[in-house]
Amino acid sequence: MHDRLSEDSNHHLPQVDVAIVGAGMAGSIAARRLRQIGYRVVIVEKSRGVGGRVATRRMHDTHADLGLPAWSVQGKFMQGILTAISRREAIAPWTDTIYEFDGESFVKNTHWSPAYVSPAGINRIAKYLASGLEIWRQRRAVAIAPTPDRTWYIALEATGSDRSDATPMELTATAIVLATPAPQAVTLLETVNGHFSPHFLDTARSVEYDPCITEIAGYSPDKQGEILRRSPPWRAVRFPRDPVLASVSWESSKRTGDRAPVFVFHSSAAFAETYLDTNDLTLVAQALRDRASETLFPWLDRPEWWQVHRWRYAFCRRPHHGPLLASTQPAIVACAGDWCQDNTHLSHFSSIETALNSGDRAAFWVNQQLENRSFPPFVSLWKS
Ligand SMILES: Cc1cc2nc3c(=O)[nH]c(=O)nc-3n(C[C@H](O)[C@H](O)[C@H](O)COP(=O)(O)OP(=O)(O)OC[C@H]3O[C@@H](n4cnc5c(N)ncnc54)[C@H](O)[C@@H]3O)c2cc1C
C-alpha cells in the first residue's frame, strides 16, 4: 500500500495534467476530449496495442475480431466515429440481421440494427480514436498515491518487451481517469485504501463482470466453396439458451478475398466461469467447436488451426448507475468505462456506446475540477 509521498521525492518525475489508465474506448475518448482543450494528457496502457476489448488479432495470413465483432449505430458516439472513419477508409455494412438459435431453428432477432465492420479489422476504430494521443504502451499502472500537493503519483511496470528507459516507469498527474473494467480500477484504488470514502470504494467493488472464452478457428480452403454453395443467410448467430456457446461469427464474411473460412466462437458466461483458468485449453476449444458443428456446419469441429483468448472481464453484468464514478478526495480521480451506465438517457445504449459516453462524461467532470475550460462543439471531436 502506498501512502502520501513526500514533496521532494517526485519533483523530478514526468508531470501531466491528466493521466488516463487504459487505452480502450472510454480512455481514448476522454483523452481526446481533454487534449482538445489544451491539457497535457498521457494514457498508460498495459497492452502493446490500443482498443482493449475492441481487438483484432492477426494470424495465419488473416485476422479476426476477437472482442466486439461489429458495430451498430445506437448513439451519437458510434455515429460520429462511423462518419469520420468512412471518410478515410472502407467501412462495410456486414449484416442487418442477427440470427438466434432457439434450440430447434434459427430465428431473426428483430431488435438488431445494421452492423458495420472494417475489412481491416474492428480495431481500426480504436486506432482512429487513439491517433495523435500520447500513449505509453506496455506500461501497467500498479499503484497510485496522493502527494502532499494533492496530485497523484502513479507507479508503472513494464508488461512486454519494452523495458527501455524511453517510456518512463512512473509519473505524476493533477488528475487521473481510471478507464478500465471496475475490478481492475478497484485493484488500483485499493493501493490508496483509507483515503477514499467507503461509499466510493464500495460502489466500485459492487460492479460485476461476466467472463468469456473466445476461439478463432481457420478452415481449409475447400470449405469456402461449401459455405458459398449453401449460402447461409446469417453472418452471426447467437445461442441465448446454450450452456456452452454464446455466439458465432462467420469472420471471413467481413471481407472479400479470403480464400479460407475463419470463424470466431464466444463461450457462454457459465462455461467461461468454469474453464477460465484451465491450463490446457485444447478440450475447451474443442467443446466450443463441437457445439457449433452440431447446429451450423458439421465440419466446424475440424479446423486447420485455432487460437483461444480468455476475457476475464468481457461483459458488465452488474453496472454502476451513473455515467462515471468520481472523487476529489484525496485528489481528483474519475472512473469510467462500460460499467458506468448513464440512466439519464432514455434509450438503451450498447456497451460500446456506454463506454464512450462514460469516457466523455469523465473528461467533462475532470475539466470542471481543473480549470473549467470551454469545450469546442461535439462535431469537432472527429476532425483530427
Ligand atoms: C467477446 C466480446 C464481445 C463483445 N460484443 C459486443 C457487442 O456486440 N456490442 C457491444 O456494444 N459491446 C460488445 N462488447 C463489449 C465492448 O467491447 C466493451 O463494452 C467496450 O469495448 C469497453 O470499453 P472500455 O474502454 O470501457 O474498456 P476496455 O476495452 O476493457 O479497455 C480498458 C483498457 O484498460 C487497460 N488496462 C486495464 N488495467 C490496466 C492497468 N492497470 N494499467 C494499464 N492499462 C490497463 C486494458 O488493457 C484495456 O486496454 C464485447 C466484448 C467482448 C469481450
Task: Walk me through this protein's architecture.
- By secondary structure, this protein is an alpha/beta fold.
- The chain has two domains: 7-51 and 128-207 and 319-382, FAD/NAD(P)-binding domain (3-Layer(bba) Sandwich); 56-119 and 209-315, Polyamine Oxidase, Chain A, domain 2 (Alpha-Beta Complex).
- The chain is 26% helix and 30% strand.
- It has nine helices and 22 strands.
- The strands form five sheets. Strands 1, 2, 10, 11, 12, 13, 20 and 21 form an eight-stranded mixed beta sheet that branches. It has a seven-stranded mixed beta sheet with strand order 8-7-15-16-17-14-18, covered by helices on one side. A three-stranded antiparallel beta sheet has the order 5-9-6, with no helix packed on it.
- It is globular.
- The protein starts with 14 loop residues before the first strand and ends in a 15-residue tail after the last helix.
- The model has no long low-confidence stretch (mean pLDDT 92).
- Bound molecules: flavin-adenine dinucleotide (FAD).
Index terms:
about 375 residues, alpha/beta, FAD/NAD(P)-binding domain, Polyamine Oxidase, Chain A, domain 2, 2 domains, eight-stranded mixed β-sheet, seven-stranded mixed β-sheet, 9 helices, 22 strands, about 30% strand, binds flavin-adenine dinucleotide
